[in-house]
Amino acid sequence: MPIVAPSLLSANYINLQADCDMLNASEADWYHLDVMDGRFVPNISFGPMIIEFFRKATTKVCDVHLMIEEPEKYAEAFQKAGADILTVHYEACTHLHRNIQQIKGLGMKAGIALNPHTPVSLLKDVLADIDMVCLMSVNPGFGGQAFIPQTLNKIKELRNMIDEKGLKVEIEIDGGVTLANAKSIVDAGANVLVAGNTVFKAPNPTEMISLLKKI
């Protein structure tokens, strides 16, 4: 049974409390919170202050995905805001191992995100040090994009790398996850599904979360 992490990027920001109440009452496991700086990705979302509000609104895991340059400058702020998992992008970290040490030293779980063009083989030297890999299955920055099919091969390759080393590392898929492709994603070896529009634009978001959990 996969972990379902609805992306609050697709929530209704005029009535966030209602969406948080819905998620809290649903089978959703995590809140997925996308932080964008307008530099690493061509969009701006929200920062630590908003994460703090989400933290107060739920007891569920706050899975914070930093799509930002120089994430080391802000890791402590996100820890103070209430992040349980902090994911940084491979492409944004000149000293990736140092970033991982910083995140773990602050008491959070460490995730590494890879853009669609970045091969999973680049993680072989840090895989034992992290808790999660987030594979971007769309180009980061905007919700509502179509899933990139090549991602399935990346999931399989990464799953083999993790299993060969006997590690417990979550594989999270972020972008274009739908009820139609979720089974193929899980079958390939992923176990965390980030779903934005699929959940929040559904006629019955609670039911959609339940269906994803049953994959």
From TrEMBL:
<comment type="pathway">
    <text>Carbohydrate degradation.</text>
</comment>
<keyword id="KW-0119">Carbohydrate metabolism</keyword>
<feature type="binding site">
    <location>
        <position position="7"/>
    </location>
    <ligand>
        <name>substrate</name>
    </ligand>
</feature>
<feature type="binding site">
    <location>
        <position position="32"/>
    </location>
    <ligand>
        <name>a divalent metal cation</name>
    </ligand>
</feature>
<feature type="binding site">
    <location>
        <position position="34"/>
    </location>
    <ligand>
        <name>a divalent metal cation</name>
    </ligand>
</feature>
<dbReference type="GO" id="GO:0019323">
    <property type="term" value="P:pentose catabolic process"/>
</dbReference>
<feature type="binding site">
    <location>
        <position position="174"/>
    </location>
    <ligand>
        <name>a divalent metal cation</name>
    </ligand>
</feature>
<feature type="binding site">
    <location>
        <position position="65"/>
    </location>
    <ligand>
        <name>substrate</name>
    </ligand>
</feature>
<dbReference type="GO" id="GO:0005737">
    <property type="term" value="C:cytoplasm"/>
</dbReference>
<feature type="binding site">
    <location>
        <begin position="174"/>
        <end position="176"/>
    </location>
    <ligand>
        <name>substrate</name>
    </ligand>
</feature>
<keyword id="KW-0464">Manganese</keyword>
<dbReference type="InterPro" id="IPR011060">
    <property type="entry name" value="RibuloseP-bd_barrel"/>
</dbReference>
<keyword id="KW-0479">Metal-binding</keyword>
<comment type="similarity">
    <text>Belongs to the ribulose-phosphate 3-epimerase family.</text>
</comment>
<feature type="binding site">
    <location>
        <position position="176"/>
    </location>
    <ligand>
        <name>substrate</name>
    </ligand>
</feature>
<dbReference type="Pfam" id="PF00834">
    <property type="entry name" value="Ribul_P_3_epim"/>
</dbReference>
<dbReference type="InterPro" id="IPR000056">
    <property type="entry name" value="Ribul_P_3_epim-like"/>
</dbReference>
<dbReference type="InterPro" id="IPR013785">
    <property type="entry name" value="Aldolase_TIM"/>
</dbReference>
<feature type="binding site">
    <location>
        <position position="65"/>
    </location>
    <ligand>
        <name>a divalent metal cation</name>
    </ligand>
</feature>
<dbReference type="GO" id="GO:0004750">
    <property type="term" value="F:D-ribulose-phosphate 3-epimerase activity"/>
</dbReference>
<feature type="active site" description="Proton donor">
    <location>
        <position position="174"/>
    </location>
</feature>
<comment type="function">
    <text>Catalyzes the reversible epimerization of D-ribulose 5-phosphate to D-xylulose 5-phosphate.</text>
</comment>
<keyword id="KW-0862">Zinc</keyword>
<feature type="active site" description="Proton acceptor">
    <location>
        <position position="34"/>
    </location>
</feature>
<keyword id="KW-0413">Isomerase</keyword>
<keyword id="KW-0170">Cobalt</keyword>
<feature type="binding site">
    <location>
        <begin position="141"/>
        <end position="144"/>
    </location>
    <ligand>
        <name>substrate</name>
    </ligand>
</feature>
<dbReference type="InterPro" id="IPR026019">
    <property type="entry name" value="Ribul_P_3_epim"/>
</dbReference>
<protein>
    <recommendedName>
        <fullName>Ribulose-phosphate 3-epimerase</fullName>
        <ecNumber>5.1.3.1</ecNumber>
    </recommendedName>
</protein>
<dbReference type="GO" id="GO:0006098">
    <property type="term" value="P:pentose-phosphate shunt"/>
</dbReference>
<dbReference type="GO" id="GO:0046872">
    <property type="term" value="F:metal ion binding"/>
</dbReference>
